Amino acid sequence: MKHWHEEMPFTADDSLAELIFTENSLFFDIETTGFSAARTSLYLIGCAARKENLLIVDQFFAETPADESDVLHAFLDYLQNFDTIITFNGIGFDIPYLTNKCQKYKIPEPFSAYEYVDIYKMISGFRFLFALPNLKQKTVEQFIGLEREDAYNGGELIDVYKACQKNPDKKLISLLKQHNYEDVIDMPKLLSVLSYVKLFEGAFNVTSVCANESVSYDGKPCREILFSMQNIFPVPKRVSCHYEDFHLVVDTDQTTLCVRLYTGELKYFLSDYKNYWYLPEEDLAIPSSLAASIPKERRKKATAGTCYKKKNAIFVPQYQEIQKPAFRLMFKDKKSYFELSEDFVASSEMQKEYCMHVLQFICKKKL
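Structure tokens predicted for Elongation subunit of DNA-dependent DNA polymerase:
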């Protein structure tokens, strides 16, 4: 087994990396000859840790498959110094693979005792926002502007490792080392992609709100409300998306949410419709106490769909009743609206609650 160790100056690129990548956390990535732990070999584990202003990289390399157990033991001994594991798809692949190898060598499985930050798992619901063909580590690195010297992927290096068994050439070993090395040293920089996740979790402050006249995406005149938000964690690249009434633009420090308003008449449906009568000619629901004076042929018992009060105003769309009263076009509509009021325009708390609602709705619908 070979053990490569390197130390280099390190400065966190942003506040999010500073927050997540502490001296108690460890990045790691494994290289194997396939996906099945039962039928393939583990040949390299690379780790990146932080010590004050240093990035410390350790790599454990199996020169032959017989070294696999030594590599696993060396890594597990090193892992004891940390309490948090940071990976890219480690929960989906690396950890289950290593757990199976622990079972093979009758080593107690330590992984359940750790906290995890899996970058891939955390961003997997945001592919719609990034507009990427996939979420492979190299693809995400390119998205945020990281460049690699290594031109290979893990699958292509399997044959390189097999060639090393026949002829342990230094150049071939260097290819294997370099690929894993770049995987782990780029992981701290990859943390910046989690800024989008943090934004959708509420890491922003609404700085201004304004309503104005505009032209919608389909070319029709409309009225809209614009929320300007300060990102608590800067994002590495400008992205945008559109869904129904909402248009979202996320830029370095600033996020803008544009919402198309509804101007006109909507209905507020009353829940106690059994206590009302409906007047079809007037399109009006009245309490039972007032219905006795109305001729029977002009009234009928109200239903859930005919018991409402109408209002003309400017309304804001919502898909949960976070603001009440909730108005609708039709009784069974999932989308409801609340009136754009002075209280809403003046309340940063209400505005943030609404922006959170929209972000979560967009994320859910785009999955």
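The chain has twelve helices and 17 strands.
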